[in-house]
Amino acid sequence: MRTRSSLAAALVPALGALLLAGCVLKRSKDAQVFVLEPLAAGGTTAAPLAATPEAVVGVLSVEVPGWIDRPQVTSRVAGSQVATDEFSRWGEPIAKGVQRVVAENLAALLPGRRIVAAPWAGYEPVVHKVDLTVTELARQADGSVLVEARWAVIGKDRATIVQRRSSHRSPAGPGAAGTVEGSSRALEALSREIAEALAALPLPPPATTASKK
User: Fold this and answer.
1) Within a domain: residue 177?
2) Which pLDDT does position 210 carry in this prediction?
3) What is the mean pLDDT of residues 38-62?
4) Domain span including residue 79
5) Distance between alpha carbon 120 and the CA centroid of its chain, in Å?
6) Were both Cys, which of 96, 127, 164, 179 would link to 55 (CB 3.0–4.6 Å)?
7) What does the alpha-carbon distance between residue 25 and residue 79 come to, in Å, rounded to a whole number?
8) Could you tell me the CATH number of the domain that includes residue 84?
């Protein structure tokens, strides 16, 4: 009897650990995974692509603060307090997601340009580079999503041609899905602002080819 009692006593903690592990595994399977969507994926018809792009625009790697650069979808609670949703996660690093979406948005908004994202091949004749730092990308206490960023357009000679601070707010539906959708729409507004600045810049003269002898 003592042997059986001792064995049962030893098995209870082990069974408890197994049950706890099972609960953790079950909870992790319930986590939702999200990605940001470009404007073309939201039903907006993109302009037709030009046969010959007028210039190449490169979107540099995006910088985000550490509290945003994490697997979980984050939101502002009040003031400086930030909340993370353990069951709502990004399907890619958020900085890469922002870079991807901005590049795809610019490609849709500027059919006369060819858009590439860093890192690009050394032979790419990039005329303008978009340098983007996101300082805020989260649902706010009032339920909206706020995107704040510093961005610049850099020329071939590394000179800063345009430099701005931008703030765009978008309504958001309930839950993490609403937060992600609102983030995509706010990034769309930011992309439109960048596209307008790029469209206003003069383009380099077209390359000429030597006539055949």
Assistant:
1) yes
2) 45
3) 71
4) 55-199
5) 18
6) 127
7) 34
8) 3.40.50.10610
